[in-house]
Amino acid sequence: MADKANPIRFGILGCATIARKVYRAIALAPNATVVAVCSRSLDKAQRFIADNGLPPTTRAYGSYEAALDDPAVDAVYLPLPTSLHVRWAVAAAEHGKHVLLEKPTALCAADLDRILEACGSQGVQFMDSTMWMHHPRTARMRELLSDPHRFGQLKAIHSIFTFCGDPDFLQNDIRVKPDLDALGALGDLGWYCIRSVLWAADYELPGTAIAHHGCMKNQAGVILSCGATLVWDDGKVATFYCSFFSNLTMELSVLGTRGTLHLSDFVIPFEETPVQFKFATDSKFKELHTGWQPLPSEHVISTDLPQEALMIQEFSRLAGSIIDSGSKPDEKWPTIARKTQLVLDAVKESIEKGFEPVNVTG
Asked: Looking at the whole model, is its pTM more than 0.70?
C-alpha cells in the first residue's frame, strides 16, 4: 500500500492555477509525492517548481509526453483545458498511469467513455477532482440523509454555485473560450451542482432535464449563466443554478418528508477546519406561528487534512492497492463521473433545443 515510505509518485500535466492547490494537497497527503511537472514550455514547468517550493529533485519537462514516458511516474494529475482531456487522459492510461482528472471530465459523455474505456482496459484508477466528495462532512451528511427517522423520503434538492467574474475573466479566462472549455459555467460550476444533486439522490439518475429560460452566453456561444430542473419518475425534483455573474455562493438544500439538510459552502468550506452544516427534523411552528421548533441542529466537523488532500490520499490508496496487490480499480469513481456527465449533457442539449425537456439516458 502507498504510504510515506512508498508514496504514489505524481506527474502534474499542466501548470494551471488549480495545479498549485493540488500540489499542496499532494504535499500534505501522507501517501503521495510529486516527482515531475510538465508544460508545453520547459521554462513554465521550471518556474512552477521554483515558485511553489517543490523539491529541487522534481523533474521539469517541456512536453506532456515526457512525463508519460517517465517510469518513475505512477499517476498523473491533469488540470488541462477540457478540450485536451480525451487526448491526454487516454494517453496517460495507455502508458499505465493512474488518472486524476480535473472537472468537467470531458465535453460530452462519449468523450468521457473513451477515457474510461482506456483506464479500464489498462487497469488504472480513474477519479475526477471533485474535492468536496472526500470531506468527512460529506460522509456525515450522507448518514443523516439515509436515516428514515430523521430525514424520511427525499423530495427536493436545490443547488447553487456562482461567482462574479471580473471583466478580465469574462474576456480572457479559458473557461469562456470555445476552443478550450466550451461548456463554460455549466462545466465549471454546474458540474458541482449536478454532482451534489446526484449525491443527494444516492446517484439515481433523473428521468428528465429541463434547462431554464434566461441562459446567458458570450459572443462565442459559451454559457456564462444557466439553470435547470431535474425530474425523477417518482416525483422527486431538483433545481440548480450556476453563473459567472453573481456573488460567490455555494448553497445546497436537501428536503425530505421529515428532515432538511442545508449548507452554504458545499464546494469549498468557509474555513478548512472546522466546517458546519445544519440539519432539521420534524420542524413545526411554535404556537401562534411565532417561530420554529425544534430549531435546526448545527453539526461541526473537524479534520486534520483539507478535503483536497483527503482526495489525494484516497486516490493514492486505490492506486497503491493496484500497484502493490494487483487489486482492481474502484468503479465507484468512474461510475459517478459518468452519471454527472450524462446529466450535464442533457442540460446542455435542453439549452440547445430551446429549453425543451430532454431525457437523461445512460
From this structure: yes
